[in-house]
Amino acid sequence: MGKTQNTKRKVTVKDSSKENAKNQKKKSRNSSKTIVVSSTSGMTSVTRKISAAALAKWKPLTHSSRKYCLQLMDYGIQMVMSRISDNMFKDVQSQLVSTRRSLSLKMEDRKGPVNKVKDYKNLSQTLIKLTEANKKLDEQLSILENAIKMEEILCTKMEEEFESMTTDPEETQLHPLLQQPFEKVDF
Prior knowledge:
two-stranded antiparallel ribbon, 5 helices, single chain, 55% helix
C-alpha cells in the first residue's frame, strides 16, 4: 500500500462591496441555519436537524468521551484483525493504526453536544445491571400472567358449579332466595 499524502486546498474568496451586501442579505434571511446530520445503521436511517443555537452550545469533547471512542475503535480493530488472512495482515494493520491515529488527532479539536454521561467506565456495568433487572421483570411478568390464567380457570369452574346448582331449582337444596336467577358481572 502506498503512503497517502495529506493535501490542503487553499480557497481564496474575492469579496466586492456588492457581493458582500448580497451575502449580508442572504445571512439575514437564513438566520435560522440548520445542519442535517444523517446516520445509517443496517436498514434504518436517522436524520436530525441541528439548529445554529444548538450548535453554539456544543463544547469540546471531554477526555472520557475521546477515550471511550478510541476504546471502541480498538475493539473494532481487534475484531477486524482477528478475521484478516496472514498475507494482508500488515497492510490492514498499518491502515487501521493510521486511521486510529488520525481519529485521535481529529477528536482533540472537535466539538460535540453536551453529554450528561460524565464517565464511561461504568457504562457497560450499568448496561449489564439493567439487562439483568429486565430479565427478572420479564420472569415476574410471566409468573403473574400464569397466576392470572390459573385464577381465570378457577373462576370459570366456580361459575360452572354455581350454575349447575341453580339450573334445576326443584332438585337443589338451596334456600328459596338463592334459587333466584343472578346477574353475571364481567370484569
